[in-house]
Amino acid sequence: MPGAYERVMEDRKELVGKIIRNMEKGFIFQKESWDRAAMSPQNPVSQIRYRGANKLRLMMTAVEMEYRDPRYMTYLQIEKSGYHLRSGSKGILCEKWIFEKNETVKNPDGTEEKRTVELSHPMVNYFHVFNGSQVEGLAAYEPAKKDQGEIMKMADDFMDASECPVRETAQDRSYYNPAKDIIVLPLRSSFKDDAAFLSVLLHEEGHATGAKGRLDRDIRNTFGTPKYAMEELRAELGSLFVQSDLGLSLPEENFNDHTNYLKSWIGALKDDPNELFRACADADRISERLIGNYNRHLEENLSVSERTIVL
After folding, report:
1. What is the signed CA dihedral for 279, 280, 286, 289, rounded to 10 degrees?
2. CA–CA separation, 38 vs 70, rounded Å?
3. What value does the CA radius of gyration of the chain take, rounded to a whole number of Å?
4. Within this chain, do residues 116 and 154 fall inside the same structural domain, yes or no?
5. 94 within 8 A of 50, measured Cβ to Cβ
6. In this model, does residue 32 exceed pLDDT 80?
7. Within 13 Å of residue 70, how many CA atoms lie on the same side as its CB?
8. How far apart are CA 152 and CA 165, in angstroms?
9. Are residues 237 and 249 in the same domain?
10. Are 57 and 15 in contact (CB under 8 A)?
11. Which of 34, 235, 271, 276 could disulfide-link 206, Cβ–Cβ 3.0 to 4.6 Å?
12. More confident site: 244 or 282
């Protein structure tokens, strides 16, 4: 019977295989199958949102199984909550990596002290979760809806929270210039809708997080090279993760407008399947930084408004 490491690696290989097969057909997620509500996997018991590889894994499953519910729980959580798992339900494997441990050490004076130490070799384990649609007794999921005005307000706030200048100009390209540390976008009126504009903005802000002094990724790569394509994958996943965490309606461009990079992504993933999981880890860091900047901006503006009211 395979151990935890072997089981997780086997599941990773299966996930990468599915994504490669989709890419070979010209998309990451089949556009006819995805649903906004199910693209933000979360646990209603622990109140956590699944991250990284688990997030992508559950999003892929939601598309494949046509789930409309973003909630996932372990069997134990289902039982302890008083719910029941529907007969014949199949769980989804999620991985858990352990990078540190708590240990008690004795000081020279004889006293003992508890410390958290980093493991020289991370340990891996796994668990299975079940979608809310497989759980009897769980109330139906009601997704919150955002109108176009809210989405554009969100885009303005993300622009204001950007760690580098963002300029809209009358041209047809969007890009981040690492030499000048600036983002350039076409005029928002040239986008199909507000969601598409926000998606591209988040993609370019994702690139900007890689600058020195931020997340320090290798982002000065030549167009058309494998490294350039891998940075594009990180920025695209980062944008996707931010939008799903905020419960936004994801435009089709997030899933299917990758013709310039699909071949490079396929080649890189075939050469090294773990490249996808490194990209997911970086995308997590991107999304956490962008959402952190966004939330701080909102808090600062709220504080200013409160002070203004008091005065």
Report:
1. -150
2. 4
3. 21
4. no
5. yes
6. no
7. 23
8. 18
9. yes
10. yes
11. 235
12. 282
Tokens of 276: 């996808």
121, 193: one domain: no
- What pLDDT score does 165 carry? 97
pLDDT bin (cut points 50, 70, 90) of residue 304 is low
Q: What six digits make up the tokens of 65?
A: 């199984």
Distance (Å, whole) CA 174 – CA 202: 11
> Domain residues for 30?
1-142
Residues 141/132, Cβ–Cβ less than 8 Å: yes
Tell which of 142, 161, 180 closes a domain. Answer: 142
Cβ atoms of 112 and 164 within 8 Å: the answer is no
β-bridge partners, 116:
102
First to last CA, the chain: 69
| Bridge partners (DSSP) listed for residue 183 | 166, 176
Supply the DSSP symbol for 42: B
As a whole number, the mean pLDDT across the chain is 87
- Rounded to whole angstroms, how far apart are CA atoms 54 and 47? 15
Report the domain count for the chain. 2
- Given a cut of 70, is residue 255 above it in pLDDT? no
CB 240 within 8 A of CB 254: yes
Q: What's the pTM?
A: 0.85
Pair 167, 184: CB distance under 8 Å: yes
Cα–Cα distance, 156 to 178 (Å, whole number): 22
DSSP at 167: E
* Cα–Cα distance for residue pair 200/191, rounded to 1 Å: 10
